[in-house]
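In the laboratory, one determines a bound structure by crystallizing the protein with its ligand and collecting diffraction data. In a computational setting the workflow is compressed into a single prediction: the sequence and the ligand go in, and a structural description comes out. We illustrate the idea with 4'-deoxy-4'-aminopyridoxal-5'-phosphate.
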Amino acid sequence: MNLSTLAKSIGESPTLKLNEEARLLREKGEAVIHLGAGEPKNKAPINAILSSAAKLTTGDIKYTPTDGTPSLKKAIIRYTEEQYDRMVAPENVIVSAGAKQSLYNLLYTLLNPQDEVIVLAPYWVSYPEMIKMCYGVPVIVKPEDGSFYPRMKEIEAAISSYTRAIIINSPNNPSGVMYPEEFIKEIVKFCEKKNIFLIMDDIYHRLVFDGKTPISALKFTEKDIESTNVIIINGISKLYGMTGFRIGWVVTNKKIAAIMLNVQAQTTSCPALLTQAAAEGALMGVQSNVESLRMTIENNRNVMVQELKSFDGVKITKPDGTFYCLPDFRAYSNDSVALSQMLLKRALVVTVPGKEFGMEGHLRLSYCGSIKDIKQGVERIKWALDPNAPKEIFIGERKLVRDWL
Ligand code: PMP
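The predicted complex, in structure-token form:
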């Protein structure tokens, strides 16, 4: 079949593929533990449900303005003022079907063929593929010291005359680390000096631990929203645990927003009315859900780190936020894809290979599930890999005996 070469070159989403594999195994009755998930277990906030239900019962469910309903945009403007200390206008905000679509529309709007976008390893799997889908070139910058913290020196060395943008995700999926304030300050200044867009993927910005507070890149520019190079992406998926509602947004200057509006108008018309109403409910309602989710996840993080610390040979960088960590399993294998497959087959634990995030030899483990899953999941991994771990384990009703070490 003669299909698009570009489309055929786009990699599948490893995380979504693993979700599907785990679902199929569970359907077969297998006691799978999912340490690969990218969504918290909490229910949607009641205000979100009520707001959406109220719209639904009117039966009047039509297209909305392309860039989002005026009332949701008002809620996002309020959020931006509260969280970023910036007043923006409705023309600076475009609501899309998830932050993923916001990012894609943004890259589509910014890039000409062969333009380069700097992506910092470890990175979210979708960045390089989305850049390629917009005919751009992802330029991966990986810290030479093997840490998860980018350094300006290495970023500067990767800049060329084709560099259009840098994407930052902090706290970071998959490592969980939060970049230091000094680094964010430096990179804002650098991008403004060089006229490079700085895309801040803030989807996890308030899911931070140990008393840390979110860092807003906008704090480090004296320019207003019309002239700054900083562009903000955010959404309700992670903070409110509302992944299935598919609402995200971008805050940027009016020129970029106007082009993004056309891109969205011609491809999706608008995000769905019912989920926009839900997002509005979440943003305008009581915010205690966010804090209680954050506290639950912080506690889960503590348990995950404690379990991994007692794992011989595994090195763990303590996450500052998100619900992921990226332990180093090189003491056991340098091939994270094979390791992840082996753990799924033998121990029925879903992990995501670090290779997908530009960090071979690591595995991304999520701690957004239950404490029981975290403890049992790590216990199973130990059983499968560590010769000092007990030889026998119960998985569901079955007693398994390790015979490969
Ligand atoms: N950015 C990052 C870093 C993410 O991890 C995700 C979701 N996995 C997104 C963006 C997309 O979020 P949404 O559900 O709003 O599309």
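The first helix runs from residue 5 to 9. Keep in mind that any predicted model is a hypothesis to be tested, not a measurement.
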